[in-house]
Design brief:
The protein is α+β, with helices and mostly antiparallel strands. It has helices at 75-79, 119-131, 184-196, 209-224, 230-234, 250-263, 270-291, 293-318, and strands at 5-11, 14-22, 62-65, 70-73, 88-96, 105-113, 133-140, 145-153, 156-162. The model is unreliable at 268-321 (pLDDT under 50).
């Protein structure tokens, strides 16, 4: 990695020299535009709309247009601003970790100690870790004054730029004005469904399927040319239904989702599934005791109907695509 910026974290009289590195990168396959007839690259030119001339980059200035007037800002004008004068990451305050809204996070940077002595860096890292706090900082980067969050990730200090308060839109939707009534049964089923998908987040388990397939397509076209058979490359794909119908019976949808998740093994252990079913079993048993055999017969009938549906599903699966 190459450092994009050097400076120092300052709080009180403590000064911690650091190098700043981008912590993330874009993994998308780089594509460019071409003429579909001959493959020629499409180039964009900086052409002045007044005299029609192509303008070299060194003669292009920035400007602000309010709709009626245009104010041209020269490089000298921008250089006079104080944004890049300071090389300090100035700590403003230390706040509890849980007070930061993830919606405000923007870009992430790793901070490497830029000094022979690591003590100040290690001390700040240890203090943040032990106190479970995040340092809110001000700094300037790339001609912008920025707000940031300085926190610990493993053995390294991470600087995350934050959006300014007025850059986060307020979620004001009329549809949320009315609060629907949620029954305890619906909440129990929803919780059971969530529990069947419960697990520890492991980022390495996930991959960008679209980019993987795009690379596979490019490799195939490089090898076979434009005569590539996409069905052979990717296999026959069953087209997914577009959109989703409105769920008329939420309770039924939740119940069927829980049953399907448990039937396929879900993400939880059999013991956890059994524990989830105990409260429902107790309630069902209590109701059966009160209602006598009539409800028992209904339950059997319901079970028979469910069982009758399964062979139909298997038959449908055997039909050719």
């Amino acid at each position: 990695m190459r450092a994009i910026w050097t400076g120092a974290i300052t709080f009180g009289l403590v000064n911690v020299p650091v190098k700043v590195y981008s912590a993330t990168e874009d993994h998308d396959v780089a594509l460019h535009q071409v003429h579909d007839a001959d493959g020629g690259r499409i180039r964009y030119q900086r052409r002045c709309e007044i005299d029609g001339k192509i303008i070299p980059y060194e003669h292009i200035a920035k400007a602000y247009d309010d709709g009626e007037r245009t104010v041209v800002l020269t490089p000298e004008d921008l250089a006079s601003l104080p944004a890049e004068r300071s090389r300090e990451i100035d700590v403003v305050e230390f706040v509890p970790n849980d007070q930061l809204d993830p919606l405000m996070f923007d870009r992430s940077y790793y901070l490497e100690p830029d000094s022979k002595s690591l003590k100040a860096y290690a001390l700040l890292r240890r203090t943040l870790e032990d106190s479970e706090r995040t340092a809110i900082v001000n700094f300037a980067l790339r001609q912008k004054t920025r707000l940031g969050a300085l926190r610990v990730r493993g053995d390294v200090l991470v600087l995350q730029t934050l959006l300014w308060n007025d850059e986060v839109r307020e979620a004001s939707f009329p549809s949320l004005a009315d609060t629907p009534r949620i029954t305890q049964r619906e909440l129990d089923l929803s919780s059971a469904l969530m529990e069947s998908f419960a697990g520890d987040f492991q980022p390495e388990k996930f991959s960008d399927e679209y980019q993987d397939e795009l690379r596979k397509l490019i490799d195939a076209k490089l090898e076979q040319g434009d005569t590539i058979d996409t069905a052979e490359t990717f296999g026959e794909q069953e087209e997914k239904a577009k959109g989703g119908g409105e769920v008329i019976d939420l309770m039924e949808a939740l119940q069927r989702s829980v049953e399907r998740s448990r039937g396929s093994g879900g993400r939880s252990s059999a013991k956890e599934d059994a524990d989830d079913e105990k409260p429902a079993a107790r309630k069902s048993g209590a109701k059966s005791a009160k209602s006598g055999t009539s409800k028992s017969g209904t339950a059997k009938s319901g079970t028979a109907k469910s069982a009758a549906k399964k062979p139909a599903a298997k038959t449908a699966a055997k039909k050719p695509a």
